[in-house]
């Protein structure tokens, strides 16, 4: 065999198309399946699902572009866990046409997982309807809460009209927590119960329009902690001001104390200057214990007599907290 012939044979043997054809007829892993060797199983939590889906869906997109759905059975034969992976990814992407193909190949009714609840978690309305009409039993009383959490009003209504699993009582609260006013209105109109946290959660996340609607239409108590208020200064100030004006179940003194704990000077100034909330020894001692010199200076400038409330115990705590330098600076401010 001459040199030219050898060169031609070698160049032919290294062609990817040739090896793909050869691999199709070999036992073991088919070439088409190689990209799924290290794919993890479907995770258990919604947050982990989103993280899992992105790289997996990229692999699937390439796979479907190259092979369509003709080799899915081979893929599942090689990797049995891929059956559930394929079904879940298709539900999340709300691809009913592909779900129909998967049902033909694998029988979705044989899948014991809560597929309808999965559709609720990701707001896949068309997939939800298809699985329901197919007769899949995979839902539970948490489905309504998941749908309300993401504001999927179409799914909430569908569950109300068509499913019998019930609900947890947290759907309205979670809708309020995430600012989904239309969902809250609809659940309220259907007299769905609440766990009593709707107002507090709406306040916590800074949903002013929803807070105002709840104030008019419902009677949940507003349990507020500044530790849970929006970190956005403007939103937090707006919310505190509105609550102090409109809600009698909000204690401005408790809000002030939380503001001292959180070193939120703008809210402190709003409460003291606008609403006249008085300083107390409790607030002074908290600021001393935390070494919040800016707040202490603000207190001293507002009312120099207030420093008389610093007792020996507070001084001791100040030094034991490693704040001797702060104490010296504070004394120089007073002198």
TrEMBL record:
Organism: Aphanomyces euteiches
Protein's name according to its UniProt entry: Uncharacterized protein
Coiled-coil annotated residue ranges, if any: none
Pfam families (alphabetical): Ank_2
InterPro entries according to UniProt: Ankyrin_rpt (IPR002110), Ankyrin_rpt-contain_sf (IPR036770), SecEffector_AnkRepeat (IPR052050)
Gene3D superfamilies given in the database record: Ankyrin repeat-containing domain
């Amino acid at each position: 065999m001459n040199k030219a012939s050898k060169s031609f044979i070698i160049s032919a043997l290294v062609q990817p198309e040739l090896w793909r054809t050869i691999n199709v007829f070999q036992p073991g892993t088919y070439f088409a399946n190689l990209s799924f060797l290290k794919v993890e199983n479907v995770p258990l939590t919604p947050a982990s699902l989103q993280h899992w889906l992105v790289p997996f869906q990229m692999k699937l997109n390439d796979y479907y572009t190259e092979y369509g759905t003709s080799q899915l059975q081979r893929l599942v034969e090689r990797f049995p866990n891929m059956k559930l992976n394929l079904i879940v990814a298709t539900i999340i992407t709300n691809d009913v046409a592909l779900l129909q193909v998967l049902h033909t190949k694998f029988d979705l009714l044989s899948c014991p997982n809560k597929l309808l609840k999965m559709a609720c978690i990701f707001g896949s309305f068309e997939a939800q309807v298809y699985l329901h009409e197919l007769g899949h039993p995979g839902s539970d009383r948490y489905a309504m809460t998941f749908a309300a959490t993401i504001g999927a009003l179409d799914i909430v209504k569908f569950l109300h009209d068509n499913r019998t699993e019930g609900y947890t009582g947290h759907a309205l609260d979670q809708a309020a927590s995430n600012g989904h006013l239309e969902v809250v209105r609809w659940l309220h109109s259907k007299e769905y119960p609440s766990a009593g946290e709707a107002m507090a959660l709406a306040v916590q996340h800074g949903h002013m329009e929803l807070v105002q609607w709840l104030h008019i239409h419902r009677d949940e108590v507003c349990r507020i902690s500044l530790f849970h208020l929006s970190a956005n200064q403007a939103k937090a100030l707006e919310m505190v001001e509105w609550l102090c004006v409109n809600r009698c179940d909000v204690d401005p003194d408790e809000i002030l104390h939380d503001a001292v704990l959180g070193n939120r000077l703008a809210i402190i100034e709003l409460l003291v200057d606008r609403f006249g909330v008085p300083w107390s020894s409790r607030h002074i001692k908290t600021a001393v214990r935390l070494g919040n010199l800016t707040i202490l200076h603000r207190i001293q400038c507002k009312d120099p007599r207030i420093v008389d409330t610093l007792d020996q115990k507070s001084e001791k705590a100040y030094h034991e907290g490693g704040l001797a330098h702060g104490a010296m600076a504070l004394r120089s401010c007073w002198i």
